[in-house]
Write a structure and sequence with these properties.
two-stranded parallel ribbon, 257 residues, two-stranded antiparallel sheet
Length: 257
């Protein structure tokens, strides 16, 4: 029969990153190549079946004898292997998993991270996640939560200036801060958009605005600003980005079926 994929997209990335980090700090590894993470995995105190399951998950290949096991049982075995993996890494070095836009994460990974956090609560394991408050309330239910207020205008202006590599004129900084409404990502995109439109120039760490900027309407949202920046990219780059977005959409659609 057709092999049913086990997703765990975020978990897969975290495992591979952890192994590459272990490989980079090991005394016998001078480089971190594509095979380095396999060597780091082999050095952990895991059973051979669990090591095989972890390698199959990250490499997205068949897991050998587990293929003939019912899906529900395979999930249990794989979750056990994931917990053992993070426990072994926590014992050796400690683990801190950073997840941005957690409300967009695949549910299978978030469930696993919640379980790993509960089981390894007394070890050097932590998950730090960021997401939109109203959309992430049910994610990682046992995690402590901190609500971050919108950034102040002066801090937003500083973020925008850092994004373009130069101090912004006061009027431009104020306009970006007002439009961004405390959102540092939006401020970054707005500043880069003005540079891309040649309405701002940067020289010797100082930004200068062209007269046309006064009549230029700033994009009203992060999404509009992102699309505007995307439209200014060279044609092959736009095709690559669109293809990447379509591929991710297809993965999400298949995952729901």
């Amino acid at each position: 029969g057709t092999r049913v994929p086990l997703r765990y997209d975020l978990v897969r990335q975290a495992i591979r990153s952890a192994c590459l980090e272990l490989a980079s700090v090991s005394s016998d590894a001078s480089t971190t190549t594509g095979s380095s993470w396999h060597a780091a995995l082999a050095s952990l105190a895991l059973s051979e079946p669990d090591r095989t399951r972890i390698a199959a998950l990250v490499d997205d290949v068949d897991a050998g004898p587990d293929d003939d096991i019912p899906l529900a049982r395979r999930r249990i075995l794989l979750r056990g292997a994931i917990i053992s993996f993070f426990g072994a890494v926590a014992d050796r070095r400690g683990v801190c998993v950073l997840v941005d836009d957690v409300h967009k994460g695949d549910p299978s990974s978030l469930e696993v991270f919640a379980e790993v956090g509960a089981r390894l609560h007394a070890t050097r394991f932590a998950v730090v996640a960021a997401g939109r408050p109203m959309q992430g309330e049910r994610v990682l239910p046992l995690a402590k939560r901190t609500m971050l207020e919108p950034m102040e205008a002066k801090d937003i202006a500083a973020v925008a200036a850092y994004a373009v590599g130069g101090a912004l004129p006061d009027g431009v900084a104020d306009a970006i801060a007002a439009q961004a409404r405390g959102n540092p990502l939006f401020a970054t995109l707005l500043a880069r958009h003005l540079i891309a439109q040649r309405l701002l120039t940067v020289k010797a760490g100082v930004c200068a605005a062209v007269p046309e900027l006064a009549a230029f309407p700033l994009p009203p949202s992060v999404e509009v600003c992102s699309f505007a920046l995307h439209a200014l990219l060279p044609h092959p780059s736009r095709i690559a980005l669109i293809a990447g977005a379509l591929a991710r959409s297809e993965e999400r659609r298949v995952g729901k079926e």
